[in-house]
Specification:
Blueprint lengths: L6 H8 L7 H13 L7 E2 L9 H9 L19 E3 L1 E4 L2 E2 L3 H17 L4 E3 L19 E4 L4
Antiparallel strand pairs: 1-3, 2-6, 3-4, 5-6
This protein binds zinc ion.
Length: 146
């Protein structure tokens, strides 16, 4: 089954371009191409693209991020990170199995195109998912290379 990016997802994805960093534009392009190949539908929520320090702080205060936005900044604040959330049965879900499936598919897709990304499903880069370094499987960040 082929999927298309929804209107809100597209808008939330394109917030990354605000950073003006070339890698952000690469990440946006990768996600736009990936929707044509993904084995599972996904969405990007309002806080899933670029974040201001205030947006980051509110996620931290709610217990949804380990980065407070000031002392510990998120790559969302630099426009280098995106959260792809599985879309199942008409709603966003953080169900782990769906998130790991999507994580593996997007990571492979990017690497196939010569772009190395870090996934929150494998913060250590060990190649092992579903361990103690797998606490944010919807998160992806691109490395600066341009
Ligand atoms: Zn994230």
């Amino acid at each position: 089954m082929k999927y298309v990016l929804g209107k809100n997802t597209t808008a939330n994805l394109e917030t990354l371009i605000k950073s003006g960093i070339k890698e952000s534009a690469v990440l946006v392009s990768l996600v736009k191409e990936f929707i044509g190949y993904t084995p599972i539908d996904f969405c990007i929520l309002e806080n899933g693209g670029y974040r201001t320090a205030e947006m980051q702080r509110s996620l931290y205060d709610a217990g949804n991020s380990k980065c407070d936005g000031v002392k510990y900044k998120s790559e969302h604040q630099s426009g280098l990170a995106v959260d792809l959330v599985p879309w199942v049965n008409g709603r966003a879900t953080w169900e782990k199995r769906a998130a790991f499936y999507l994580s593996g598919a997007f990571t492979s897709f990017c690497r196939q195109r010569g772009v190395d990304i870090t996934t929150g499903a494998d913060w250590s880069g060990s190649g092992i998912i579903n361990d103690s370094n797998s606490w944010d499987p919807c998160h992806f960040q691109i490395h600066r290379f341009l």
